[in-house]
Amino acid sequence: MTSLFALILAGGSGERFWPLSRRTRPKQLLRLVSDKTLLEETIARLDELVPRERILVLTNVDQEKSVRELLPDLPPENIVAEPAKRDTAAAVALATAWLAARDHQATMLVLPADHVIKDRDAFQQTIRTAAHAAEVTGALVTIGIKPTWPCPGYGYIEQGAPVAVPGGSRPNDIFHVRRFREKPNAELADTFVRQGTFRWNAGIFVWSVPTVLSEFNRHAPELADFISQMRAPGQWEKVLRNRFGDLPIISFDYAIMEKADRVLMVEASFDWDDVGGWRAVAAYLGKDEHANAANCNLTTLQASDNIVFTDNATQVALLGVHNLIVVRDGDTLLVCNRRDAEKVKDLVNKLPPALQ
């Protein structure tokens, strides 16, 4: 491979995992499945694939201090705070400008900071396959996850015919992308899974800098102009401060991926979980004989299918309750029914600002 750089998207808000998560402490800064935060796990997954000096972490002004404290071994200039909340198209444009100033022929890997992937070797092999395909074909390459159930909460990728890449992958590792489908309803998601040619869109991408610059110029001229201004000598801070907040709020999928002519998909050979809420965390916690999942000492009587998560070594006792989520963070406590886990973010909007 030529020079491989990694962009880690580490912004977002802390709603689904309240009260453990807050505006200044979103999911990627939490220790949900191990003794490391999800952001630390993401960076560790790149060891021996991408040197630390080639990793860029994009966060926002609310979370910048926490991210810098968490990642002291990353060069300070490799942590950049977006001055305003925009979507992934603006984030990728900012990262492209940062990378093009360092190596205008480099290959860029784009990763969310908050996914759980246990098999590092398989992850790295998939990324190597995708990077080689991006370099040889000049295509935008996305990673597809084989669905394990018809989830209506994910975007989907419809795969086309397999693609032979010289000197690269095994047969049926790489496919043309027919189209992207946004989050479907439950019935349509079931159709996708039964059809067998749809994959979950994990939001993991690989491309060369010349390729993505070309696609910005073709499909998003306002973002291309921003990149050009950012690359001008001595203009980085000024343009970031004055222009970023005016960029369109649009995802990279909508702005570029769905319009590009050359898009390929590599099917992931690794495990993947985006851990979208408290119900998903239960899979990584210890369970008793009544399917109560907890990260602390738990005593139960006539209680089942509960999820308990605390920020310290609290002893929790449950009596006669079922299908609850109980989360404690300091002096803040959440109690809700498991079926209402997706509504936690709605609850957060009703809280005093100091608790959000």
CATH architecture descriptor of the largest domain: Alpha-Beta Complex
Q: How does the helix and strand content classify structurally?
A: alpha/beta
Q: What would the principal axes of the Cα set say about the shape?
A: globular
Q: How much of the residues is beta strand, in percent?
A: 25-35%
CATH topology of the largest domain: Spore Coat Polysaccharide Biosynthesis Protein SpsA, Chain A
Counted up, domains total 2
Q: For the terminal residues, how far apart are their CA atoms?
A: 44 Å
Structure summary, number of beta strands: 16
Helix content: 25-40%
Mean pLDDT: 94
CATH H level, superfamily name of the largest domain: Spore Coat Polysaccharide Biosynthesis Protein SpsA, Chain A
Cα-atom Rg, whole angstroms? 21 Å
